[in-house]
Amino acid sequence: MSRLPAAVACDVRLQYRNGFYAAAAFVAVVLVVLLRWLPPETLRLLLPALVLANMQVNTFYFVAGLVLLEKAEGSLEALVVTPLRPGEYLTSKVLTLALLSLVEAMTIVVASYGLGFNPWPFAAGIALTAALYCLYGFVVVVRYDSINEFLFPSMLYTAILSLPLLDYFGLWEGWLVYLHPVQAPLVLLEAAFRPVPAREVAYGLLYGTLWVAPMAAWGVKAFGRFVVAREGVR
C-alpha cells in the first residue's frame, strides 16, 4: 500500500475509534431538528454561515484533537523515522476531515432545506474551507502539548477565522474582508443558496485555491520545526 492511502486508512480508523464520526452525526441530528422549524428564507441566509461555523469543529478542532492525541501516544514523533512525508501526513488529515465535513453538511442541508440548492459551489466551499481550517489548525496546535494549553488561545484563533461573518451579517462591511482567506469559501457557500455574480464565484474559487498552497507550505514548515526538530534534539 502506498504511503498516502495507508495514512488515510490510519486516520479514518483513528477518527472512528475516538468518536469523531459519532459526534458529527449527533450534531447533524440536533441541527436538523432545530433548523426544520425555520422558514426557507431564513435558512437561505443562515445555512452558509452555520455550515462555516460548524466546520470549525469538524476541521480546526478535530485536527487539533488528532495531533494532540498522536503527541500523547508518541506516534507523531515516531512518524519522523517513517517514509511518510509531512505533506502526505497533512494531505491525509485534510482529505479525511473534508469528507467528513462534506457528508455532515450535505446531510444537514438536505434534511432541513431540501434539494433546492446548487451542490457544486457548496462542495467547493466545503473543500476549500476544510483545507484552510485543517492546515491552520495544524500550524496552531503543533506548538502545544496538551488540550488544556490549547483551548484558551484557540478561541482567539477561531475568532480570526470568523471575521468574514461580520460582513456576511452586515455588522461590519468593507472591501478588506475580501482579503481574508475564509471570505472566498464563504462566497461559494452563499452562492449555493442564492444568485451571486459570476465574478464573485470566480473570486471564491481562485482566491480560496491560492491560499491553500501557502497554508500547506506553512504546515510543512511547522511540522519540521515543532516535530522533526524537537525529536532530533531528544
UniProtKB/TrEMBL annotation:
Could you list this entry's UniProt keywords, alphabetically sorted.
Membrane, Transmembrane, Transmembrane helix
Establish whether keyword Cell membrane is in the entry. no
Is Membrane one of the keywords? yes
The portions of this protein that span the membrane are 20-39, 45-69, 94-116, 122-144, 156-181, 201-220
InterPro entries attached here? FLQE3_permease
This protein is called: Fluoroquinolones export permease protein
Which organism is this protein's natural source?
Tautonia plasticadhaerens
